[in-house]
Amino acid sequence: MMREVTFGGTTVSAIGIGTWHMGDRTDRRDAEIAAIQAGIHAGARVVDTAEMYGSGRSENLVGEALTPFKREDLFLISKVLPENASRDRMQTSLEASLKRLRTDYLDLYLYHWRGNVPLAETITELQRLQKTGLIHRWGVSNFDGDDLQELWGLPEGPKVAANEDLYHLGSRGVEYAVLPWQQAHQVPFIAYSPIAQGDTHGHQLASNPVVKEVAAAHQVGIYEILLAWVISHDQVLAIPKTSSVDHMRANIAAGQLTLSAAELTALDRQFPKPTTATPLDIL
After folding, report:
1. What HEC string does 153-192 produce?
2. SUPFAM superfamilies per the record (predicted)?
3. Rounded alpha-carbon distances, angstroms, from residue 247 to 45, 58, 219
4. Binding site, annotated residues for substrate
5. Mind listing the pLDDT tens digit for each residue in 131-168?
6. Phi, psi of 35, rounded to the nearest 5 degrees
7. Exposed site from 153, 208, 244, 271, fewest CB < 10 Å?
8. What are φ and ψ of residue 198, in 5° steps?
9. Residue 283 — pLDDT band, cuts 50, 70, 90?
């Protein structure tokens, strides 16, 4: 059974498609478009991008990749840079993203990370844009526990639809305060880099013997287990990125994997959950 996440009344499969670093190389463009399209054909609804990714090149790629599909069948996420998150600049930034994405609206628009614009001004403008119909929901990204509490204290803060942070088996800091807070306040969590960017940052997830053992038991690859672990948590959406059609199909299929209590316990022993607060992990 496919795990799901609900954003303000819209339910999507718990594994979507990330696009960070996509669109940067012309020699990979066809493969990247094919991978995105394969993910949607395999059952993904969510595609996550940002104006920052390749200075708009990722949005351009996504816009081209999505042309064969019905817009209402998709859940499209993009993000606004901190320097554009003001009353004077946000709508212009949003409209440029929409043009690159070849769409009239975003299902979710995220404040990419905190900058110098007062948070209250950013949230007020996001709420105004929602009322125009250019975005259907708004949220935040790279917010820690203190940021979320500050946000919740604003008049329109509780209307936040999601927070997107780095989260994978080797980086569990959000489990101490952020994830419990979001679950208690019914704010969905989006996990970026859910497979640790292919194990390139020293976490040794793919080489861990217990991860390998669990993968063998399910007759799947290592990364499917890492994704299944991330979405085993309630109301968590994972957005892995790949330029391979085969890997994309495997990623989406991981949404149907269920890890046993014993397997989850074994993974916990290898990669313990945090017992104290730690700074928010970011890339």
Report:
1. CCCCHHHCCCEEEECECCECHHHCCHHHHHHHCCCCEEEE
2. NAD(P)-linked oxidoreductase (SSF51430)
3. 17, 19, 15
4. 112
5. 999 999 999 999 999 999 999 999 999 999 999 999 99
6. -65, -45
7. 153
8. 70, 25
9. confident
Domains and their CATH numbers in the chain: 4-270 (3.20.20.100)
Report the candidate in 74, 76, 10, 9 with the shortest Cα–Cα distance to residue 43.
74
Please give the full DSSP string across 77-128, using - where no structure is assigned: EEEE-GGG-STTTHHHHHHHHHHHHT-S-BSEEEE-S--SS-HHHHHHHHHH
| Active-site choice (53, 109, 111, 223) | 53
Beta carbons of 96 and 79 less than 8 angstroms apart: no
- The pLDDT assigned to 225 comes to 98
Q: Which residues are registered as beta bridge partners of 11?
A: 6
Q: How far apart are CA 255 and CA 45, in angstroms?
A: 12
What's the rounded Cα separation, in Å, for the pair 159 and 272?
33
Residue 14: count of CB within 10 angstroms of its CB: 27
53 is catalytic: yes
Other Cβ atoms within 10 Å of 26 Cβ, number: 8
Which residues are annotated binding-site positions?
112
pLDDT at position 54 is: 96
- Paired strand residues for 44: none
Q: Quote the mean pLDDT of the chain.
A: 96
Residue among 65, 60, 142 at smallest CA distance from 101: 60
**Separation CA 222–CA 228 (nearest Å):** 10
